[in-house]
């Protein structure tokens, strides 16, 4: 027995020794293969990608590249790629190929190499690889979107159609993980669009028919985004909402009826909201108001598991933004209210130029984004070589400080986009844009919308920005496309009160005026406080404060449910009299102040008293929105 145990022990030890010896030999081999010689030169690194793997890393592996620039150059580059940390390929191009030689390559050849490299490297959406994912998105836009786009299947040299299908499917899933690719060759990526003005208990004929492709579905799916952009047509209103928002949507539709809206409204869903009761409620609003309401079910285009786990809350807004069928759309939150016909927004000249128009948020100076967040955004900037060799350029240099005061002293003009950029990237001010209403031309802005969606999906900036709003301008900025932000500061509407020589208005609504001091739209409903149960919540949180001021929950609840009376607006000067946040309405109530001289002229901030005709119209809209008899 002792000999038997000893023999087993010796055999087990022998196996361990053999395994350790083999492991040691493997380590020595790998170290020898991957370590550069003493005289090897490490390529210059362009850009800081932390420990992420660039899609360009390994850019020149494969026979295709050797045929283009020669075997000797290729082997030289490959040896450096094996030895160096992950880095931008453009540094490798500059050092080992030469920028001129790369520039002379045809775009199709560049994109073929880029696509293969993306497929080889792969990238997930997390903090360490987000710069690479953004880089991949810019590669995709350079090759397959915009003017004279290429087609992904033309970039492949697979030996069989089955291999081409598999590779293209993998590439699409890598870049756009939310797209459905399970049946890429048999199931067309196309939404179901229904006209809710039709009669019947449930959905009937499709409003937007699936395109006829002579059975070649795969041609649509292979280059889906350019086909989707080209299929977009017309103008419309776009909304996304959940079951709990149906009442608010009914109020908005009544306002649109009052404004004699004549453009269609699309409610875009991921399919999760497609319940008979939800659909029937929307249909009733169509019948009551005569508004053209269309329901877009985008589920045939989306990966169900991905949607279930990733597309929540504010992220649904990107689905609505991207998967509506309009060329030009007004994306509006269900609690935002226009005071002018919606077609007015399409006529803004700067919108026509850039294809996207946004409004400013409250300029709250004391709320800041963490410095790390801004550093992470800066890390998404393209390298110098990327800008030089494939033309990627941003409107502002994220790594450099812009001294606006110096520019102003020198008489240089300052755009509002530059002010917003500086406020965020150099002053770390958290709130810049109000996304309650955004005007978008999909043909011009599809790339930026996809990148904005990608940024939001990553979760990296969850604690850096509030919801979706800042991504509407950061997406275009990081895509290298132009964008427009309304130059006027946000305001508050309501009734004036006097406070120690200041004129103030306090309300939870954020409003937006035009150059003629007319009210364009407001965000936050048209009650004193839109949140259900807010009075009880406020008393629970600050019982002494609210008891001293409002006595009982019922008194406060009655106030909160009152319609907002609109007398005028105040546009504050936040440098002199900043916005003041109060405890009312679950701390969503803000006060703004202006100071006037004896003649009534504005000295600090701006007080706007609406003329009687405009005030009557605004209060009529408030009445329509608030009157429960108008909402089922």
Structural features, described:
The protein is α+β, with helices and mostly antiparallel strands and 632 residues long. Among the domains are: 1-34; 492-630, no CATH class. It is 44% helix and 13% strand. A hairpin with a 5-residue loop joins strand 17 (590-596) and strand 18. The longest helix is centred in the first third of the chain and has 33 residues, at 2-34. Residues 1-33 form the signal peptide. This is Glycosyltransferase family 71 protein. Keywords: Glycoprotein, Glycosyltransferase, Membrane, Signal, Signal-anchor, Transferase, Transmembrane, Transmembrane helix.
Topology record:
Layout: H1 2-34, H2 63-69, H3 71-83, H4 89-97, H5 99-104, H6 107-121, H7 130-144, H8 161-175, E1 192-195, H9 217-222, H10 224-231, E2 235-239, H11 246-258, E3 265-269, H12 276-289, E4 293-297, H13 304-310, H14 316-323, E5 328-332, E6 336-338, H15 343-346, H16 349-354, E7 356-360, H17 371-378, H18 384-390, H19 404-409, H20 416-425, E8 433-441, H21 442-458, H22 471-479, E9 484-485, E10 492-494, E11 497-499, E12 502-507, E13 510-513, E14 519-523, H23 534-541, H24 543-550, H25 553-560, E15 568-571, E16 580-581, H26 584-587, E17 590-596, E18 602-604, E19 606-609, H27 612-626
Parallel strand pairs: 2-3, 2-5, 3-4, 7-9
Antiparallel strand pairs: 1-4, 5-8, 6-14, 7-8, 10-15, 11-12, 12-17, 13-14, 15-19, 16-17, 17-18
Helix pairs in contact: 2-3, 6-7, 7-21, 11-12, 11-27, 14-21, 21-22, 23-24, 23-25
């Amino acid at each position: 027995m002792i000999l038997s145990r000893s023999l087993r022990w010796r055999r087990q030890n022998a196996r361990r020794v053999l395994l350790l010896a083999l492991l040691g030999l493997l380590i020595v081999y790998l170290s020898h293969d991957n370590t550069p010689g003493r005289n090897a030169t490490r390529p210059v690194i362009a850009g800081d990608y932390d420990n992420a793997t660039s899609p360009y890393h390994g850019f020149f592996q494969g026979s295709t590249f050797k045929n283009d620039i020669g075997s000797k150059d290729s082997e030289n580059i490959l040896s450096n790629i094996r030895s160096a940390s992950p880095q931008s390929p453009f540094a490798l191009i500059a050092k080992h190929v030469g920028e001129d030689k790369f520039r002379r390559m045809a775009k199709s050849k560049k994109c073929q190499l880029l696509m293969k490299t993306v497929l080889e490297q792969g990238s997930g959406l997390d903090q360490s690889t987000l710069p690479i994912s953004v880089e991949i998105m810019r590669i995709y836009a350079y090759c397959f979107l915009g003017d004279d786009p290429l087609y992904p299947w033309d970039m492949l040299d697979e030996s069989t159609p089955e291999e081409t299908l598999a590779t293209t499917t993998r590439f699409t899933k890598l870049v756009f993980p939310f797209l459905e690719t399970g049946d890429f060759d048999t199931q067309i990526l196309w939404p179901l669009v229904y006209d809710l003005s039709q009669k019947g208990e449930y959905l009937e004929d499709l409003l937007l028919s699936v395109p006829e492709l002579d059975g070649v579905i795969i041609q649509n799916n292979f280059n889906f985004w350019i086909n989707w952009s080209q299929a977009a047509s017309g103008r419309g209103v776009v909304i996304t909402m959940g079951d709990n928002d149906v009442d608010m949507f009914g109020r908005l539709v009544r306002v649109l009826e009052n404004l004699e809206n004549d453009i269609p409204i699309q409610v875009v869903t991921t399919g999760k909201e497609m319940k008979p009761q939800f659909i029937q409620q929307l249909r009733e609003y169509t019948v009551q108001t005569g508004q053209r309401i269309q329901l877009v079910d985008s589920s045939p285009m989306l990966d169900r598991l991905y949607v279930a786990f990733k597309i929540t809350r504010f992220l649904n807004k990107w689905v609505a933004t991207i998967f509506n069928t309009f060329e030009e759309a007004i994306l509006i939150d269900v609690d935002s209210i226009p005071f002018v016909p919606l077609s007015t927004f399409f006529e803004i000249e700067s919108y026509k130029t850039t294809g996207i128009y946004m409004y400013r948020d409250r300029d709250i100076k004391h709320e800041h984004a963490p410095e790390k967040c801004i550093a992470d955004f800066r890390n998404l900037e393209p390298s110098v070589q990327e800008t030089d060799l494939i033309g990627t350029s941003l409107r502002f240099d994220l790594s450099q400080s812009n001294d606006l005061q110096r520019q102003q002293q020198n008489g240089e003009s300052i755009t509002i986009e530059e002010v917003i950029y500086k406020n965020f990237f150099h002053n770390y001010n958290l709130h810049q844009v109000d996304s309650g209403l955004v005007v978008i031309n999909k043909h011009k802005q599809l790339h930026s919308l996809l990148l904005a969606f990608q940024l939001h999906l990553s979760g990296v900036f969850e604690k850096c920005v509030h919801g979706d709003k800042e991504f509407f301008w950061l997406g275009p900025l990081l895509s290298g496309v132009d964008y427009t932000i309304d130059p006027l500061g946000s305001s508050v509407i309501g009734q004036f009160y006097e406070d120690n020589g200041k004129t103030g208005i306090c309300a939870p609504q954020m409003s937006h005026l035009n150059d003629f001091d007319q009210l364009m739209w407001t965000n936050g409903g048209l009650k004193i406080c839109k949140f259900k149960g807010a009075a009880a919540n406020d008393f629970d949180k600050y019982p002494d404060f609210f008891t001293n001021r409002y006595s009982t929950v019922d008194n406060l609840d009655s106030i909160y449910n009152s319609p907002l009376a609109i007398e005028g607006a105040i546009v504050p000067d936040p440098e002199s009299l900043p916005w003041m946040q109060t405890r009312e309405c679950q701390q969503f109530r803000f006060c703004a102040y202006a100071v006037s001289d004896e003649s009534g002229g504005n000295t600090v901030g701006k007080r706007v008293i609406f003329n009687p005709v405009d005030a009557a119209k605004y209060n009529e809209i408030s009445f329509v929105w608030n009157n429960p008899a108008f909402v089922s």
